[in-house]
Specification:
single chain, alpha+beta
Length: 140
């Protein structure tokens, strides 16, 4: 089975209503075959600091993701959730996603066929790389 890289992404938000804008964009990425979402959890600290955990099937804007077949759930652990929650202030949220980069599956297979191994990988945030790309006609 050819698989692409699998990533864990944790995105923090002030407030508790992040999925209304993110949900439709995730659905577009799944529908286009760019990614396959394997697991998704939204963690929120209410104003009193109490932690609320919601899975994809408990979020109206994300329930449709399960119709695409890739979502298996159970991959995001309690330790992952605790890690994300430790950085949250009251009345803030973190969205934890595990997805497969379907777009990269052919390249990942080429690496495997060449007996290659990815030794490291990092994601460089837009605000960090943007100054280096000024004037190079690259959108960040």
């Amino acid at each position: 089975m050819v698989t692409g890289p699998v990533e864990l992404l944790i995105v923090g938000f002030s407030g508790t209503q992040c999925t209304a804008t993110i949900g439709p964009e995730l659905v577009k990425l799944v529908e286009s075959g760019t990614i396959s979402i394997l697991d998704l959890v939204l963690v929120t600290k209410d104003p009193d600091g109490e932690l609320i955990e919601r899975r994809h099937d408990q979020l109206d804007t994300l329930v449709s993701l399960s119709a695409f077949g890739g979502l298996i759930g159970g991959l995001i652990t309690k330790a992952d959730i605790a890690h994300a929650a430790s950085a949250l202030e009251p009345n803030a949220s973190a969205l934890l996603l595990i997805w497969e980069d379907l777009w990269a599956a052919p390249f990942a297979e080429a690496i495997r066929l060449a007996n290659g191994v990815v030794n490291d990988s990092a994601r460089i945030p837009g605000p960090v790389i943007a100054p280096a790309l000024v004037g190079r006609h690259v959108a960040v």
